[in-house]
Amino acid sequence: MSDPNGDRTVVNAYTTPFLPYDLEGPAQPEMSWRPVSYDRETGLGSYFMRMEPGAVTIEHHHEVMEKFLILEGDLVDSDGSVFGSGDFVSYEAGTRHNSWTENGCLILVCEWQRPASVRP
Fold first, then answer.
1. In whole angstroms, what is the distance from residue 39 CA to residue 44 CA?
2. Which of 3, 10, 88, 110 is the most buried (most CB within 10 A)?
3. Protein fold of 27-118
4. Measured between alpha carbons, how far apart are the two ends of the chain, in Å?
5. For 5-27, how does the pLDDT look when each residue is reduced to its tens digit (9 = 90+)?
6. How far apart are CA 120 and CA 88, in angstroms?
7. How far apart are CA 78 and CA 81, in angstroms?
8. For residue 117, is pLDDT > 70?
9. How far apart are CA 110 and CA 95, in angstroms?
10. From CA 90, how far away is CA 108, in angstroms rounded?
11. Residue 120 DSSP symbol
């Protein structure tokens, strides 16, 4: 939903239809996503991602920073870290990993580039 002036976009994670998830390669039927501001060309922006119980992401490399908030469920990272509802996780650019879920999850993902003025 957008406002009449085009200044705001509203996407409800519970009522907006999701799409087949294909950001790491071929579509994964046990995962879906809903772009909010994500741009495939730049790899920047935000989206919701839903993973069904037992879903596993394809191992991937982050060209930019990735931050995500787990809204529901659980997520296990390839290093064995277990995340749950309310956990906010941040990865630096250059990270390589994959994740899976035991019981399913809903995540808000933000892919972004740190401005040059604040880079280490």
1. 6
2. 110
3. Jelly Rolls (2.60.120)
4. 38
5. 678 889 999 999 999 999 888 89
6. 21
7. 7
8. no
9. 15
10. 12
11. -
What residue ranges do the domains of the chain occupy? 27-118
Please tell me the distance from the alpha carbon of residue 45 to that of residue 27, in angstroms, as a whole number. 20
| Rounded CA separation 28/51 (Å) | 10
The angle subtended at Cα 58 by Cα 52 and Cα 61, nearest 5°, is 130
Nearest to 32 by CA among 17, 42, 11: 17
> What is d(CA 112, CA 44) in angstroms, rounded to the nearest whole number?
5
Reduced 3-state DSSP string for 16-54: CCCEEECCCCCCEEEEEEEECCCECCCCEEEEEEEECCC
CB count in 10 Å sphere of residue 51: 25
- Enter the tokens of residue 103: 């019981």
Q: State the DSSP H helix or E strand holding residue 80, giving kind and residue range, or none if neither.
A: none
Categorize the per-residue pLDDT at 77 as very low, low, confident or very high, splitting at 50, 70 and 90.
Answer: very high
